[in-house]
Amino acid sequence: MLNEVTVDRVFLAKGSTDMRKSIDGLAVLVQEVFELDPFSPNLFVFCNRKRDKMKILFWDKNGFWLYYRRLEKGQFQWPSDDQNATPLKITRQQLRWLLDGLSLEQKHAHLEVMVRTII
């Protein structure tokens, strides 16, 4: 299971990615195409053309995690590629929505409440 406590940000690769790529291939994409550090405490999320497979790359202290999700039915609500290599920065909540089959924009979701401590 993903431990979101250690995650700073989530970056989503728009469009499709070749799912034959393993850890090294995805790390090269993050470094050379996204111009980001694959060893940073971020999640890098990729999806195939049919939108039924997803991979998440994450560096954890001394090695990479590669999470793989394959849907038996249905598709992920994935943003299309706009010919821009810049990854889409999303929240951890939006990633959970994607994993649950929802779109990134949930108009009926509860808004995050900023809690203030009272002294």
Task: Write a brief structural summary.
The protein is 16% helix and 24% strand. With 119 residues, it is of the alpha+beta class. The mean pLDDT is 87.
Task: Using brief descriptors, characterize the structure shown.
119 residues; alpha+beta
List the helices and strands and how they pair.
Layout: E1 9-12, H1 23-33, E2 42-47, E3 53-60, E4 63-70, E5 88-90, H2 92-99
Description:
The chain is an alpha+beta fold and 119 residues long. It has one domain (4-99). It has helices at 23-33, 92-99; strands spanning 9-12, 42-47, 53-60, 63-70, 88-90. The protein has a 5-stranded mixed β-sheet with strand order 4-3-2-1-5. A hairpin with a 2-residue loop joins strand 3 and strand 4 (63-70). The radius of gyration is 15 Å and the shape is globular. The mean pLDDT is 87.
What number is the mean pLDDT?
Answer: 87
Query: What percent of residues are in strands?
Result: 15-25%
The first-to-last residue Cα distance is 37 Å
Q: How are the strands of the biggest sheet laid out side by side?
A: 4-3-2-1-5
What is the helix content?
10-25%
The main pleated sheet reads as:
5 strands, mixed
Number of spatially distinct domains? 1
The stretches of 5 or more residues where confidence is low (pLDDT under 50) are: none
Q: Please count the helical segments.
A: 2
| Cα-based radius of gyration, to the nearest Å | 15 Å
Count of DSSP strands: 5
What pattern of helices and strands is seen along the backbone? Answer: EHEEEEH
Structural class: alpha+beta
* Gross morphology: globular
